[in-house]
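From: lab user (bench 3)
To: helpdesk
Subject: output format question, protein + magnesium ion

Hello, I'm new to running complex predictions and I'm not sure whether the block I got back is the full result or only part of it. Here's what I submitted:
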Amino acid sequence: MKLTGVEVREIRLPLVSPFRTSFSTQTARTALVLRAVGPDVEGWGECVAMADPRYSSEYVAGCGDVLRRFLVPALAGRDRLDAVAVAPALAPFRGHRMAKAALEMAVLDAELRTRGVSFARELGAVHDRVPCGVSVGIMDSVPELLDAVAGYLDAGYLRIKLKIEPGWDVEPVRAVRERFGDALLLQVDANAAYTLADARHLARLDPFQLLLIEQPLDEEDILGHAALARTVSTPVCLDESITSARAAAAAITLGACTIVNVKPGRVGGYLEARRIHDVCAAHGVPVWCGGMLETGLGRAANVALAALPGFTLPGDTSASDRYYRTDLTEPFVLADGHLPVPTGPGLGVTPLPDALDEVTVRTEWIPL
Ligand code: NPQ
Ligand code: MG
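Helpdesk reply: Thanks, we reran it on our side. This is the complete output you should expect:
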């Protein structure tokens, strides 16, 4: 496959309601959409970085800069480019995994469309639909939270994840457990808001039979997570800390987690995400697919990934209308708590031209 350049668009999609986490409150999703262009092919990528470096060190403008200056130019001067060659070509540039992931995704989509193969088939999916959970933001009051959770359960979501932070943890968890019962699949995500000094406090979540506690401590605090995992009975799951298959292997071996949240953007792409799946499977560690408020593009690829055999827990692969009134693509609609795995070539979905133009803030062409 030959490519002539990459179009990078910054988009701004309003959220249906504000999404509050321990690190920020978002009312709109700013993101980059990439279009890898060749003489007779195009492929779509999505960069999951946020506008501000609050979830991780990456941010939208920084991703645009590193793509323009270093990453796209590193793919120049080849008559043939395959997706497997992208990560090695970008490896001389340190970090910037979200920017790299977006570029690899666009090239992979272009390649798979050329070959007539879906993301699901290429990655090794074994299911034609995936069970879905939903991530529920921090609210101003417990009654508001209970209403929100009730709405998501009515919509069919099979698992609830509560965002937590100091001051919003034991009480909301207790309230949701009491209202919706012991059978509800329930987990929490702290986005690194605690320290190991909070271990006794976090142990107060133990009675509520949570599936897991996600990223309670700092991204770099692997040994802290290992110590916490020895103190609390809730299984510890890592998100931000898992930046590669190698990091996953180390965290598992050190006892820092017994479950892993896989986010392709965080780890440099779908091919590395599959390697994390494989490493975790080899260790008997369950994985699930996280979410970064993706548009239909990233959502399509995430649903394909979540259909691999080791993804044994419901993911944050929510329907389009969890976040957006109008998605960039045909919307993903929950059916019986599941989303269908796309079957068409590549992502199996394409942005609707008018919907994309509507939300595009700026467009840049980076020649190859
Ligand atoms: C997580 N996602 O698992 C993330 C964090 C997150 C679904 O909980 C804008 C863009 C807002 C990306 C808020 C979920 C975001 C974002 C939260 C990612 O930790
Ligand atoms: Mg998380």
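A quick orientation on your result: The CA atoms of residues 196 and 224 lie 6 Å apart. Let us know if anything else is unclear.
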